Input
Amino acid sequence: MQLCCTKKVLDYLKVQPEAVEFVDPLFSWHVNMFILCRKKALLLVNDLSRYPILLFGIKKADVRNFNELILNSISMQLTGAGFGQARVAEYISRSGNVSILKTHNRAVLSHCSQMAFLAGYEVEDLFFDELLQPVFSERAASLIYKIETGNGRDYYRPRDLMAEGLGLLVR
Output
């Protein structure tokens, strides 16, 4: 699995990005950090489907095991969203080792910015005592976005594209 981090995230984690070739966009996530209600938030956005996962209230102690935190968050969110335990387990097992890279796709970064902006308006639905924010993630994943796919540009829901990607893994 590839985590393409913004400069702000790389500086916060105090890591150097690896020089690795890019893999299947289904296994690649862009990670952005922003301030929401005076707390740090991490937003993960899948490169293929633009499926968002919001982690709210990040602290230094949380990022000591950053790779494990991200894998657990992705697994919990996808399972909680109803994608099925078997599909999510297959996705996590096929994702491979976690590698941290620089961002490379401006379109995905644009979606990160849009979803961070949307999170500012969804403050009343945030769980201030939990790290993972499933309500926001599901609400943002059910909105329609203009996403460029292999068939050209079209309008999709990130939830539908993620379900399609996970469905292809199990077959």
Summary: The domain at 2-170 is CATH 3.30.420 (Nucleotidyltransferase; domain 5). The chain has a mean pLDDT of 88.
